[in-house]
Design goal:
Strand order of the largest sheet: 11-10-9-12-13-26-25-22-23-24
Number of strands: 26
Structural class: alpha/beta
Strand content: 15-25%
Number of helices: 29
CATH architecture of the largest domain: 3-Layer(aba) Sandwich
Largest sheet: 10 strands, mixed
Shape: globular
Distance between the termini: 37 Å
Helix content: 40-55%
Number of domains: 4
CATH topology of the largest domain: Rossmann fold
Length: 754
Amino acid sequence: MAAGDGEAFGSEPGQLKVFIGAAPGVGKTYTMLREALSLKERGIDVVIGYVDVHDRPETAAQVDGLEVLPRKLVHYQHRTFEEVDLDAIVARHPDVVLIDELAHSNAPGSVFPKRYMDVEYLLDQGISVLTTVNVQHIEGIHEEAQEITGIPVRELIPEALIRRADEVSVVDVTPETLRQRLRDGSIYPPDKIDHALANFFRKSNLSGLRELALRVVAEDVDDRLERSYSRRKIPGPVGAKEVIMVCVSSYYSRAVRLIRRGHRMALRMKADLYVLSIPNSAETMLAEKDKALLNSLQELALEYEAEWVVEPRNDRPIGAVIADVAQRLNVTQIVIGQPASNKKWAIWRDNPVGYLLRHLRYTDLRIVGWRDPPGTAESFDKPHTYLSDSNVSQRLKGRLTIYVGAAPGVGKTYKMLQDAKDWRKRGWDVVIGLIETHGRQETADQIGDLEIVPKKRVEVAGRVYEEMDIDAIVRRRPAIVLIDELAHTNVPGSAHEKRYQDILYLLERGINVVTAVNVQHLESLHDKVEHITRVKVRERVPDWFMKLAREIKLIDVTPETLQQRLVEGRIYAREKVKQALDNFFQTANLSALRELALLEVADDVDQRNLRARAAQAREALTEFGRILVCVNYRPHSEKLIRRGWRIADRLNVELWVLVVLTDEHLSPEDERDLARIQNLAEQFDAHFLMKPAVNHDLGLTIVQTARELQVAQLVVGQPIYAKGLLQRMKSNPIDYVLARGEFVDLHVVAYERD
């Protein structure tokens, strides 16, 4: 609901904005009331139709200044209930009305049995609504919630109402924070706290519901983005979500292997899974035996929770059919079996792998070998030890908390300062190490009387810069220090090159640090962000640093709200607004970045849950063997390492990076590029190998190394084939691997050609 001056309110029908949370006490009502106050400041007519503050003083304070309409009294069996007074709201006819607890069941005798029906009625009257709901009350989603908690969900709203909403936002709170609020008496009365902690508010329940809420909103963002006109400006798949499509043929036993492989990948990567079959003609024209085979494959796909897709060939090359379906479904990985190794067949027959290697754009190709590595089963590797689980995290005495957002202006710094005041009330010694308000008055007001450690002045080439004074912070030795702009690069002459290194220094000395970063600054997302926004992000944070955080908190804001803040001058100076709206702050960019942020935090929650369960059961997480990324020392190699790391991270396996040297002597430029590639590999905690080419043959060297390391998956870049038949007949390393690497899966990362 980001329309200016109320121009979109009062239209037919009204607009709906829903705030979703994982549990009571996350702050949905508080956030809704803050939004209402912001709307009122812009001259929009806002009233409260029904809000319960549940004796929470901070929430109650937000009601001041807002008009509260009387509730309707409903008498039933000698009892009196308070419900939404629809007649009073319609008679008052505000631009926007606040209706809390969307899943509530109304008392018998009310106009409608459910509160969400009250909301639908008001929307139909042209009145816009702000409302709240917990994720477990959404029909369809409630089944997953029940599996997580073991507690039946009785009050539901239809999923269609969420799809109808104009804006959906998640209010994200970590389980640790939520359980602390419960202990503080901010959620339930004292007599209910112990029971809640032992039941619904168990940490495992809250973690599972939190991940569910993040993914539900991410799915909603993805659906809206795909339906939007602005989506057309971004080619290929968008967002961090993986979509896997398994291509099966008439060989049933091979189809079983491929579907199982795709299913395991989808489970660990939280991906959508499709199974594609390509008959020569429409199903109605197939012979009975071919129909029977299709039915068997369909049953197999459904057994593995995949969506079944049949696409008749109709005289097209099979590879072209696969590419067309992948584009239509926004597939990020195609899984297909290794082709026969006869070279003449590969050139002259309709080889789908060869076609895809030459024509795919934006979609990776996973070519599955037909044999396991020698002497191994499906799982053979020891669990990978993350940097966050190794010596780095073990030597940290302080605790790290990171606030993550999708873009500037979402409110990371504001929330960080707001929480700092709460911590101080509870007796914690909190100081500001560095805060950037960027001229935002609301943020500056939040600083209040929080203590600020003075900055250090650094002179460089006759100019004086101000940087955070880490020595002064260590001397002050607070319990918690707030440090903004995590991705910042310090001026030359500072103790450390990057701010995250300053933070490590403080954590090692036992000082708890709270910091903030936007998702586009994560190293592993660099290529994805550049693809979406066409902006090369210069300042980046290594992903291993994010894994050091004890808590990661998402600050979620819809693109509409963010653009409204921009127009009002609350993010950048007014002279920069138009340029920002025309470039980085386009709706498609903000939506895609928001989806990235939602899924990154959801994946972080999922991996923490997996590690906790594995540690409790004393089990290994590894399901797939080592991953070997094969690179040279060109810029495209950086993308391969980032892609390889994201796969290894999701599968919890070791990452190796191999450079095969074909020249005895490297130029100074090549040596610099090689050093950059090695540094990036080490940032991702990868094992880095350099080997001379065996008999000057890259393919032979790659296959031999894969055998030696017992690699389960090779990651390589998509080859760039020259035009012309004679050029196509020339061998390349991928041809060699396809012919002789039947024990390994070959993951070909798409080269984004314009």
